[in-house]
Specification:
There is one protein chain. It is built from no helices and 8 strands. The chain has strands at 2-3, 7-11, 16-23, 33-34, 43-47, 57-64, 74-80, 90-96. The strands form 2 sheets. Strands 1-3-6-5 form a 4-stranded antiparallel β-sheet, with no helix packed on it. A 4-stranded mixed β-sheet has the order 2-8-7-4, with no helix packed on it. The N and C termini lie far apart (40 Å). Helices cover 0% and strands 44% of the residues. The protein is mostly beta strands.
């Protein structure tokens, strides 16, 4: 998988959804999932198609709900189905505090 970016930033206290594009750079259809054991309740993840054929593009949607538990300044979404260790198959989620000016 080639992700266009591997980090997402959400604004603290605001619900939001980010969409990440990826390409299946492998030679087999790819079915992605998330390691839900490590996914905090404040994040939810969905995929636009299953499976993604070789050479095709897919979408990962990450939703942030600050009213749910588990909000931290930095979190990881660990993708499953890539055959790689978590350090090479994760998306970093950052929560930023913005000050009113």
């Amino acid at each position: 998988v080639r992700l266009r970016r591997s980090e997402v930033t959400f604004k603290a206290g605001e619900k939001a959804v980010e969409t990440l594009r990826f390409i299946n750079a492998g030679d087999r259809p790819l079915t992605l999932d998330v390691d839900r054991n490590f996914l905090p309740a404040c994040l939810s993840v969905s995929f636009d198609q299953d499976p993604v054929e070789p050479g095709e593009e897919g979408l990962i949607r990450i939703a942030f709900d600050p009213s749910m538990s588990g909000v931290r300044e930095s979190m990881k979404v660990i993708l499953k189905g890539l055959g790689l260790p978590p350090s090479q198959s994760s998306i970093t989620i950052r929560i930023k505090q913005y000050q009113n000016e």
